[in-house]
Amino acid sequence: MSRILIIDDEAILRDAASEALRRKGHAIEAFDSGRPALEAFSQSAFDLVISDLRMPGMDGVAVLEESKRLAPDVPFIIVTAFGTVETAVGAMKKGAYDFIIKPYKLEELEALVARALEHRQLLAENEVLRVRVGDAEAPGAVWSPATRDVHDLLVRASQSDATVLISGESGTGKEVAARTLHDLSRRRGAPFLCVNCAALSAGLLESELFGHEKGAFTGADRMRKGRFELADGGTLLLDEVSEIDPSLQAKLLRVLQERSFDRVGSSQTRRVDVRVIATTNRDLPAEVERGRFRQDLYYRLNVLPVRLKPLRERREEIPMLVEHFLKKHKKRVSNGAMSRLCAYSWPGNVRELANIVERAAVLATADDISGDLIAPWLDGGAPTPQSTLGVPLENVERRVIEENLKANGGNREKTARILGITSRTLRDKLKKWGVA
Asked: The CATH number of 128-307 is which of 1.10.10.60, 3.40.50.300, 3.30.1380.10, 3.90.1150.10?
């Protein structure tokens, strides 16, 4: 359960956001102004802050600056109206994780919150994957032999503006690597924006990337700038780029080749100076062979390839990561428990490790976490499954998906990550089975 601080002077929006996130299992504290919220923030630990930008007295930017002084690792989401998007982008230069434009759908807020909380978990990779700009000349203190090559590659890649393709299994820290690259580069003072390509349909993703003109399509009641335009001078992360619809891949190729694009519904070409970083958990050359991904786009993205090793290939880092995850709980892992953690294969990588350690810290009745406590989770943590002999594969797949959805409280994005599939794939399967 994550603790979230919500600040908004509009009671209706504040209450709706609070209730929606409570239904997702989060603990919420909500305030109508910045100063009492910051007082609560200074006295208790929070995992995320969501604040309106325009408020009487102390505005969202001031709240952001003070919260970053108190707890720089807590992600901050700015809620902004259409006319103040540029101010929200400026807030991202000061440390905000992302922004959302109101009026927004509660599903959009829930997805953004899930990404922000996941990002905070993955920041534990700082111990083994991220290096500050001032440390670039003297790296190595926190780098194991398994990740030193990644560190060196990120440092070298940060000195250019070439497109980078980061590949790796789900949960290995691809977004953290991308943010590290941005922080090390000359663009570190400019925006770092992220688009989850798997979470949006082709039409919505095109508008999200390139923006649209008023009246460009049904529901386009105002002009909107896209992420390429908002990230001008900075970095744009295309998360799970393999999931981009083929019809949109050609337009993305044009931006990479010419650094220009047209808003949806406009014939005016706009030029941008954006460094593109893409991530994928798929084998893109294999996707090219199957005709699902353009070969020319793959070559444009794969200028500087970075592969993140799964946790099972860098087990020596597990004790360091466990120690990091336990800092806020003031508990220890017994030798027996650590041996089990180091021996496990970790199909969910760092994200799975973080979840196991968090669960153990909450449920452990003593200061030491025992091996017996965590053993059932590492061995499967579920009753012995029924035999699947003679059962059609689709039925087995449906049972696995439905059981995971139930275990995750209906959270589709989280379920997709755990199962190693995209949100779009999960959505299509559920639609096929008539599951709302």
From this structure: 3.40.50.300
Sign of the four-CA dihedral 307, 313, 317, 322: positive
Residue type, 202: A
CB 25 within 8 A of CB 1: yes
Q: Residue 328 has which token pair?
A: 């806020």
Strands 164-167 and 275-280 come out as: parallel
Strands of the sheet containing 192-196, edge to edge, are 192-196, 235-239, 275-280, 164-167, 304-307
- For 31, phi then psi, to 5°, come to -135, 155
Assign a CATH topology to domain 393-432.
Answer: Arc Repressor Mutant, subunit A (1.10.10)
Distance between CA atoms of 238 and 178, rounded to whole angstroms?
10
Distance CA 153, CA 306 (A): 7
pTM above 0.70, yes or no: no
Phi then psi for 27, rounded to 5 degrees? -90, 130
Domain 3-108: CATH class, spelled out: alpha beta
As given in the structure block, the two tokens for residue 67 are 């919260």
Strands 76-80 and 48-52: parallel
Write the DSSP string, 238-264. Answer: EETGGGS-HHHHHHHHHHHHHSEEE-B
- The residue-averaged pLDDT of 270-274 equals 92
Domain residue ranges of the chain, discontinuous segments joined by +: 3-108, 128-307, 313-378, 393-432
Whether the CB-CB separation of 374 and 337 falls below 8 Å is answered with yes
Instruction: Collect all residues with Cβ–Cβ distance below 8 Å to 350 and sequence separation of at least 6.
Output: 121, 122, 124, 125, 171, 172, 173, 311, 321
Residue 436 in tokens: 């709302």
The per-residue DSSP string of 128-151 comes to TT---GGGTTS--TT--TTTHHHH
Both tokens of residue 415? Answer: 């379920």
State the amino acid at position 289 in one-letter form: E
pLDDT per residue as tens digits for the range 160-200: 899 999 999 888 888 888 988 998 898 988 889 999 898 88
Q: With contact defined as beta carbons under 8 Å apart, do 368 and 374 qualify?
A: no
Classified as helix, coil or strand, 79 is: strand
For the domain made up of 313-378, give the CATH fold. Answer: Helicase, Ruva Protein; domain 3 (1.10.8)
Sequence-distant (6+) residues with CB within 8 A of 63 are 7, 34, 37, 38, 49, 51
122 — pLDDT class (breaks 50, 70, 90):
low
45 near 39, Cβ under 8 Å?
no
315 close to 174: Cβ distance less than 8 angstroms:
no
DSSP 8-state class, residue 310: P
